[in-house]
Design goal:
The structure holds 2 protein chains of 2 kinds. Chain A is an all-beta fold. Chain A is built from no helices and 11 strands. In chain A, strand 9 and strand 10 form a beta hairpin. Chain B is globular, with a radius of gyration of 13 Å. The chains are: A mainly beta, B mainly beta.
Chain lengths: ~110, ~110
């Protein structure tokens, strides 16, 4: 167990809906990164939050947005869901933005119908 | 754009066999390379991290090597066990970037008793 918890574990939505995924980082960690992993693919970087600010972003459209709270937990919001958004969404925390040791949660499996 | 390729995509071996997983990357300007393990439907666990200035790292039965100039890394697993069955992913972090990991698609390893 890494101490990084994600909720919910599974979620089913329909195309066009909005979804919010949540992540609690490991105690003492101030940096959270989000990744999308489609079936049979490697994880793709979505964005990173460091001390409540977005610290970097991958090649994802603006309908993917995030938030980090003062306790360093984080949310990933996806608007106007598309079928291709179906994937495992992984959250990883680290001690700080320069620390290479990432601790991943077990992910949220999102299915868009 | 960095691309990471892992060969083979799947590998099945009998228990006790030594094996090698391969990872190649197109841009040699990396900061470090990591090998991760992923169990079905789960998050990632970091196995070994090699800095760009290093040639190899070892942890127990695992040994990872890095040849930055040729854009290659290998993960050697000695005396494989059924519990080693999982997907193994390699990921590189680009020099100058302190947040984004670029992953390969992984190698699905099955160790048969």
């Amino acid at each position: 167990e890494t101490g990084v918890t994600q909720s919910p574990t599974h979620l089913i939505k329909t195309r066009g809906q909005q979804v919010t995924l949540r992540c609690s980082s490991q105690s003492g960690h101030n940096t959270v990164s989000w990744y999308q992993q489609a079936l049979g693919q490697g994880p793709q970087f979505i964005f990173q939050y460091y001390r409540e600010e977005e610290n970097g972003r991958g090649n994802f459209p603006p309908r993917f947005s995030g938030l980090q709270f003062p306790n360093y937990s984080s949310e990933l919001n996806v608007n106007a869901l598309e079928l291709d958004d179906s994937a495992l969404y992984l959250c990883a925390s680290s001690l700080d933005a320069n620390n290479e040791k990432l601790f991943f949660g077990s992910g949220t499996q999102l299915s868009v119908l | 754009k960095q691309e990471v390729t892992q060969i083979p995509a799947a590998l099945s071996v009998p228990e006790g066999e030594n094996l090698v997983l391969n990872c190649s990357f197109t841009d040699s300007a990396i900061y470090n390379l990591q090998w991760f393990r992923q169990d079905p439907g789960k998050g990632l666990t970091s196995l070994l991290l090699i800095q760009s200035s290093q040639r190899e790292q070892t942890s127990g039965r695992l040994n990872a090597s890095l040849d930055k100039s040729s854009g290659r890394s290998t993960l050697y697993i000695a005396a494989s066990q059924p519990g080693d069955s999982a997907t193994y992913l390699c990921a590189v972090k680009r020099g100058g970037s302190n947040y984004k990991l670029t992953f390969g698609k992984g190698t699905l390893l099955t160790v048969n008793p």
